[in-house]
Design a protein that fits this description.
Blueprint: H1 2-8, H2 13-16, H3 42-50, E1 52-56, E2 67-68, E3 71-72, H4 80-83, H5 88-92, H6 105-115, E4 119-125, H7 151-161, E5 165-171, H8 187-210, E6 216-220, H9 225-228, H10 231-244, E7 249-250, E8 275-279, E9 296-300, H11 321-333, E10 336-342, H12 352-368, E11 386-391, E12 394-399, E13 407-411, E14 416-423, E15 431-435, E16 438-442, E17 452-460
Parallel strand pairs: 1-4, 1-10, 4-5, 5-6, 6-7, 8-9, 9-10
Antiparallel strand pairs: 2-3, 11-12, 12-17, 13-16, 14-17, 15-16
Helix pairs in contact: 6-7, 6-12, 8-10, 11-12
The protein binds the ligand C[C@@H]1O/C(=N\OC(=O)Nc2ccccc2)[C@@H](O)[C@H](O)[C@@H]1O.
The ligand C[C@@H]1O/C(=N\OC(=O)Nc2ccccc2)[C@@H](O)[C@H](O)[C@@H]1O is lined by residues 76, 78-79, 220, 223, 277, 279, 299, 307.
């Protein structure tokens, strides 16, 4: 009854507590979470320690770049087919123009390396149905364009040669396929959608077979009723990929359970290996700490809403490198990964804003990356000056806001004391205890004019004498 009441209130069980009902009272699920708690194997640790990734949204949508029949659309450029109501066969004619003559996979990989990303998520197939690999199961692939070559294979090789992991974005929703159904309302729907699911299985097996170095599948386009009514298939896909590629990670957005619950099953347990619902948004680092309990990955656009290439970025606010950097640190400070989006031009080059962004983030990461890579939620109360991240016994203060007091207030957990503070790539700074578990950490003498990182050394402080005896009240 409790579960139904809560579900009725629209409060997802995950928002209430990790385990809504005592274990023995949980409802039995055939297609719910296979595991409780974070995956702790080496492949998941690598996914987690990588922390910073880049998204590549590249498809036919890059060619029109948000403009159709002379009209500019402000919606997401990769959804232009929908905004301009373009029939699939007309949209797919864009394949005749797919010929990125300036595409240089080595240059792409060098740009990612310099930015400091440890992995790149590539849209193998977006909702439009155009495949960046020569799939045998559809005519809408790169092989049937003037470019002809396996462009996905070229990207995978170039990134891997630079030591960068490759993750595959895959849209289940496929506007090019006659058997796709938004809902299952008839026997005919049932039969057609069964064919569609088999087609999708075949494409996924093709990707896993052709590109065995892929480390992750990030599913999208799984919000329709047709998928929610086939939760069994989402569990089958995760299992199939993990049998083909042991260690591979899969995002929560793929999954629907026996009752169509997505991301978290009807008992409130995360499905897949990490939550992938933080798209262009992040949890409040003071008021909403629930995500610190599981693995998660956020993704973000640089303009307000453009994933694919859009000709006119003046239509919305474009985040500065500093604003992108703050989101990266914010995510890691709460135990998540951040994927920054790039929408390559139809000619295969990147727009200047994206090149400049990659450069600026890379310069900061080259000095301060140790507060990101392999770091996690510190569990300390956030302060106004910025964010904490933590790696073992080291806590990093990532300072975005300099206080007029010239002191950075730090409140440590009860049994922790600070023994040293050093600016990354800089000097030691003073630490003064101001009250029980409270310290003033000095600002560096020289203002670098950019966010900086102070590395704290901490010690166990459990049996320290209590010198702050309060007056009896
Ligand atoms: C990364 C983005 O992913 C999408 N859709 O996102 C979602 O469905 N987002 C979502 C849905 C439910 C909860 C939270 C986020 C796509 O439609 C879009 O073109 C882009 O590829």
């Amino acid at each position: 009854v409790m579960f139904l009441l809560l579900a009725g209130a629209g409060v997802t069980t995950a928002q209430v507590q990790p385990r809504l009902l005592p274990a023995e009272q949980e409802i039995s699920l055939k297609y719910g979470a296979e595991r409780l708690g974070k995956r702790q194997d080496a492949d998941m640790k690598r996914f987690r320690d990588n922390r910073l990734g880049a998204f590549i949204h590249w498809g036919l949508y890059a060619i029109p770049g948000g403009e159709w029949n002379g009209e500019m659309y402000g919606g997401a450029a990769e959804w232009l087919k929908a905004w301009a109501k373009v029939p699939a066969d007309e949209w797919l004619k864009l394949m005749e123009q797919w010929n990125p003559t300036r595409f240089n996979p080595k240059a792409w990989a060098k740009m990612a390396k310099k930015m400091g990303v440890k992995y790149v998520k590539i849209t193998t197939k977006h909702h439009e149905g155009f495949c960046l690999w020569p799939s045998k199961y559809t005519q809408y692939t790169v092989a049937q364009t003037p470019y002809k070559k396996d462009i996905l294979g070229e990207m995978v090789k170039a990134y891997n040669d630079e030591g960068i992991d490759v993750h595959f974005y895959f849209s289940v929703l496929d506007w090019s396929h006659p058997d796709y159904r938004y809902d299952i309302k008839s026997e005919e729907d049932e039969i057609a959608f069964a064919r569609f699911l088999e087609f999708t299985d075949n494409q996924l097996k093709e990707l896993a077979t052709r590109y065995p170095t892929v480390k992750d599948f990030w599913f999208d386009g799984t919000w329709d009723a047709s998928i929610k009514k086939n939760g069994w298939w989402t569990a089958h896909v995760e299992q199939m990929l993990k049998e083909m590629l042991p260690g591979v990670t899969v995002n929560s957005r793929l999954r629907a359970d026996d009752y169509g619950k997505r991301h978290f099953d009807s008992n409130g347990h995360l499905m897949g290996d990490y939550e992938s619902a933080y798209e262009r948004r992040l949890s409040d680092p003071v008021k909403d700490l629930k995500v610190t309990r599981w693995d998660w990955e956020a993704c973000m656009t640089v303009p307000e809403n453009q994933w694919g290439y859009h000709k006119d970025w003046s239509l919305s606010y474009v985040k500065t490198p500093l604003e992108v950097l703050e989101r990266i640190v914010h995510a890691v400070s709460m135990g998540g990964n951040m994927v920054v989006n790039f929408g390559p031009q139809p000619d295969g080059d990147f727009r200047s804003e994206e090149k400049e962004l990659a450069d600026a983030v890379g310069r900061w990461m080259s000095v301060n990356g140790e507060c990101i890579y392999g770091c996690d939620y510190a569990g300390w109360d956030k302060q106004a000056w910025g964010y904490y991240t933590r790696k073992g016994k080291e806590v990093y203060m990532v300072v975005f806001n300099s206080p007029y007091s010239r002191h950075l207030v730090v409140k440590t957990p009860k049994d922790v004391k600070i023994t040293k503070a050093v600016v990354l790539n800089g000097k030691e700074v003073g630490v003064k205890e101001t009250a029980r578990n409270e310290y003033n950490v000095d600002m560096p003498a020289k203002d670098s004019g950019a966010p900086f990182v102070i590395k704290l050394q901490i010690e166990d402080n459990t049996n320290a004498a209590d010198k702050y005896r309060e007056a009896l009240t």
